[in-house]
Amino acid sequence: MSDIKSRVQGLEPNCGARDIHEMIKDTENVYKSLVIISKRAKQISVDLKHELHNKLEEFAVNTDTIEEIHENKEQIEISKFYERLPNPVLIASDEFSNGEVHYHDREEKKF
Q: Is the pTM of the predicted complex or chain greater than 0.70?
């Protein structure tokens, strides 16, 4: 997962217009391309969320009182880093347009 974080550092975090013909050049179908991108985005989202929770668990302090809240500067920096990452859909769209997403079609049953 760390390779994804390093590759998306230069990626624009704002959404922009996409060329639809470029998007469908491999699949020849808009909906198929969107399904592939959305499934990859979900994988990225789950992986990043799992990684973030694992890193933040290192700072977890179990206390019984609600009033004791400790702010850790490292914890805040980690959270801000993950907030600055582009949306998983933007990452998946970039990967798909660069040909980095591998997919296969299920064989359709013919009756």
A: yes
Q: What is the residue type of 71? A: E
DSSP assignment letter at 10? G
H or E element in which residue 37 lies: helix 30-57
Burial 47-76 (b: 16+ CB within 10 A, else e): ebeeebeeeeeeeeeeeeeeeeeeeeeeee
Q: Rounded distance, CA 104 to CA 31, Å?
A: 15
Place of tokens 């994804």: 4
Q: What is the Cα–Cα distance from 91 to 104, expressed in whole angstroms?
A: 20
Predicted confidence pLDDT, tens digits, the chain (111 residues):
456 777 777 787 777 888 889 888 988 999 999 999 999 999 999 999 999 998 888 877 666 555 555 667 888 888 888 888 899 999 999 999 989 998 887 765 555
